[in-house]
Amino acid sequence: MPTRWADNDVYGHVNNVEYYAFFDTIINTWLIREGGLDILTGDVIGVCAESSCRYHASLAFPDVVEGGLRVGHLGRSSVRYEIGLFKAGMEHPAASGEFVHVFVDRERRRPAEMPPRLRDALQRLLVVRAE
């Protein structure tokens, strides 16, 4: 994803709120393309329940951002994503974060089970940690 001129703040680097926009873009692109999430008319939608970001290095216009996405926990109606944002070509992330989606019924806004295609797409990103 290319950074934009407007992403920079007065200190000459990408403003912290833009990192969350990158998170949203990475996650929702995956959900729509791979999971078949219908954001306009689907019965189930994802709402953010929690998010966090840790900053390790600056990004600035005109940097290109590469994103890494994996799933740290997959429940019946919720998922915790783990995201890394990298300046293109760099090995270590400029930022890392977590984002929790709870999938809810569009009309009632109550937790709802994920549709099978969506769950399968998220399952492919699940990282199982040895204990």
Commentary on this structure:
By secondary structure, this protein is an alpha+beta fold. Helices cover 20% and strands 33% of the residues. It has 2 helices and 4 strands; from the N terminus they run H-E-E-E-E-H. The mean pLDDT is 96. The protein has helices at 16-33, 116-123, and strands at 44-55, 65-74, 78-87, 95-105.
Radius of gyration: 16 Å
Strand content: 25-35%
Number of DSSP E strands: 4
What is the helix tally?
Answer: 2
Shape: globular
Order of helix and strand elements from N to C terminus: HEEEEH
Determine the structural class based on helices, strands and strand pairing: alpha+beta
The biggest beta sheet reads: 4 strands, antiparallel
**Could you state the oligomeric state of the chains shown?**
single chain
The first-to-last residue Cα distance is 35 Å
Low-confidence stretches: none
Strand order of the largest sheet: 1-4-3-2
Helix content: 10-25%
In round numbers, the mean pLDDT is: 96
